Amino acid sequence: MFKNQIEGETKNAVGKAQEAYGDFTDDNEHRTEGRLRSAAGQVQSQYGEVVDNAREFTVKQPVGALAIAATVGFVLGALITRR
């Protein structure tokens, strides 16, 4: 696990605890803030997982990663110069 995944999981857990506290005290502000924090944590954790998978793919298949990068660069270049 990398930094983003760990931080994301931590934010998710804190958000769920804050949401539970809001439910317990019937405080909509804490409940909403907890839900938002939990959602942000899930997004950050998923981002970390995508980066981890991309890193593993690049290490295992460097030629394939280079071909993908070249294709993306070519397509972006063609779209930009088309104007």
TrEMBL record:
InterPro entries: CsbD (IPR008462), YjbJ_sf (IPR036629). It comes from the Bacteria. Residues 4-55 form the CsbD-like domain. The chain crosses the membrane at residues 63-81. It holds the Pfam family CsbD. Residues 1-10, 27-36 have a biased composition (Basic and acidic residues). Keywords: Membrane, Transmembrane, Transmembrane helix. Residues 1-40 are annotated as: Disordered. The keyword Ribonucleoprotein does not apply. The keyword Membrane applies. Belongs to the UPF0337 (CsbD) family. This is CsbD-like domain-containing protein. It comes from Kushneria phyllosphaerae.
